[in-house]
Write a structure and sequence with these properties.
Blueprint lengths: L4 H70 L5 H21 L4 H29 L3 H9 L2 H142 L2 H42 L10 H6 L1
Helix pairs in contact: 1-2, 1-3, 1-5, 2-3, 3-4, 3-5, 5-6
Amino acid sequence: MPISTIAFIRGTVLAMLLGLAALVAIVGFNLWLVRETAVYSNTVTVARQQRSAIVDLRTLIDEAETGQRGYLLTGDASYLDPYTQAERDIPQQLNQVRDMTAANPAEHDGVVKLVPIVTAKLAELRETVELFNAGRRDDALAVVKSNRGRDLSLQAAVLLTALVKRAEDRIDAAVKNQRDNIATLQWATIGGVLFIVLVVGGSIWMIVLYTRQLVAARREVQDLNLGLEERVRERTAELGRANDEIQRFAYVGTHDLRAPLVNIMGFTSELEGCLASIKTYMERAGEETGDAVAEEARRAALEDLPEAIGFIRSSTRKMDGLINAILKLSRDGRRLLKPEPIRLENLLKA
């Protein structure tokens, strides 16, 4: 089916709008995914920082307990260095963990439960060290053997493990979401590109088809122009032949008509010559006899015949003018046209 110009323009504009809409959709979707990726990246970063802080806190508690046990078993003061460092850093680390989990109620509740346990553990460690330093080694070991410190360590380990698990779950969920977003971005980009390719392909197909129609129409117009020129030449030749025949007919007709017209004009002149004698005679005869018939003949000779001859004269002059005009027209038809420049300024002024 041929594509009209209006359909071609509408199709091209529609294809451009569809391609632009697809491009805007892809760009908008990419921006949205970038924003979501930034959110997930921030979540991963925060979760990793939380996990690192919790692990550091658990390490400090283990180091404090290890230093305390080594000191109690050996009496070597060098074992107190890790304990002393951990005892000094644990409160600060605990506050850091509490601040980092403040935005998450579930984790914050775990940290709130962890604070008294850690405080009690530090107090238990401090008590045993102070008893050992006071020379009451057996009392210090009795506190250790009471398993109060072990229970506190187990409670703290459970809470810390749960906190670490929550942080790792958030990291895994954020990473999974990022992967899903990347996959979605890939499919959306592929789909958008395919859609744009289809739109561009359709536009190219329409342009090619429309161009072919234009080429075919141009060829058809050229063929029609060639045929038209040939028909114009044929019609011009036919018109020239018809015009020549008309001119010959007019020329011959005018000459054929002029012969009887000349006769009519000659006989009319003779009638006028005879009428003068008849008029003289009738004037005399009418005055002498007084006869009614003679009077009627006298009126015809004096009035009717001169009027009829006048009509004949007038008609022959008109017919002679028409014959001369036709003859002139036939002669002008054979005259060659000579183009001459004309000053339009003079015509406009006139």
